[in-house]
């Protein structure tokens, strides 16, 4: 039976705390949320850190402190975001690796991001990828658009396999400017993947969350859920926290006979 990796993305960089008080933005809130999500079935956590005023930050000390706190309190794989916010400079995003996470995100191209631009020029991606190889940090290739599959393939061809030898990517569907959060978009993305890919997950932002989740399970993929991507559990019913999104994903995975992976199994999947 093929098991399911659930990654939780609890915070993100876009939602203001003032708009969503239940968003975990302090270290204590993040750790409490991480523990609840692990108990509900998450094996990896995708982390964006906030400052004392709840604004996104890539402060190196805060990143290190967050990695340690999550390691002390959970067994989950700690994946730091190198995407940060659309306003973060590229050099600060490269420096995220200095916090020595288990894993990191690595977005495979520039994409319009609502009214903003999420900038990932080739030289930045190549430098970040080489640094992950050097540091032994496992990248998760983030794919917001179809052309980004081509760029991921180029990274693998030019620089060889990631640390750990496995190739894991994640479709982030539904950003205004990228692929929509629909089943046909996910199918197109999966069909375009190169044979080097050993595992993939998907998340649908907003309304497309559940169709993408169900299709991903049906197609043998893994799942990302969390308040970075979804603030509503159902129409007009805001999420109370990340754990209920994880619990629902775990329940659907169980029903489809794709039971959730433990963190130890997820480490094996990702070559950690
Ligand atoms: N916050 C977005 C601009 C990642 O974490 O690597 C980028 C993002 C992707 O969330
Ligand atoms: Zn992110």
From TrEMBL:
Q: Could you tell me which InterPro entries the record lists for this protein? A: Aldolase_TIM, BKACE
**Superkingdom, natural source:** Bacteria
The protein's name is Uncharacterized protein (DUF849 family)
UniProt-listed Pfam families: BKACE
Known cofactor(s): Zn(2+)
Q: Does the keyword Zinc apply?
A: yes
Q: Which UniProt keywords apply?
A: Metal-binding, Transferase, Zinc
């Amino acid at each position: 039976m093929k098991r399911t990796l659930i990654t939780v993305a609890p915070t993100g960089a876009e939602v203001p705390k003032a708009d969503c008080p239940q968003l975990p933005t302090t270290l204590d809130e993040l750790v409490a949320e991480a523990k609840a999500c692990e108990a509900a079935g998450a094996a990896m956590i995708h982390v964006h850190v906030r400052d004392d005023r709840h604004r996104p930050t890539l402060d190196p000390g805060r990143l290190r402190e967050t990695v340690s706190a999550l390691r002390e309190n959970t067994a989950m794989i700690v994946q730091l975001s190198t995407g940060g916010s659309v306003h973060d400079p590229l050099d600060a995003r490269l420096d995220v690796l200095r916090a020595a996470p288990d894993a990191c995100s690595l977005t495979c191209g520039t994409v319009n991001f609502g009214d903003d631009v999420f900038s990932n020029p080739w030289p930045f991606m190549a430098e970040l990828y080489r640094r992950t190889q050097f540091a032994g940090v496992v990248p998760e290739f983030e794919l917001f658009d179809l052309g980004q599959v081509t760029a991921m393939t180029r990274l693998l061809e030019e620089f060889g396999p990631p640390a750990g030898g496995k190739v894991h990517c994640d479709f982030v569907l539904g950003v205004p400017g990228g692929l929509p959060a629909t089943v046909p978009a996910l199918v197109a993305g999966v069909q375009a993947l190169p044979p080097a890919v050993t595992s993939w997950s998907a998340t649908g932002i907003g309304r497309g969350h559940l169709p993408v989740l169900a299709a991903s399970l049906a197609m043998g993929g893994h799942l990302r859920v969390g308040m970075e991507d979804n603030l509503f559990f159902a129409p007009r019913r805001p999420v109370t926290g990340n754990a209920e999104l994880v619990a629902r994903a775990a329940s659907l995975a169980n029903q489809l006979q794709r039971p959730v992976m433990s963190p130890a199994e997820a480490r094996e999947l990702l070559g950690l």
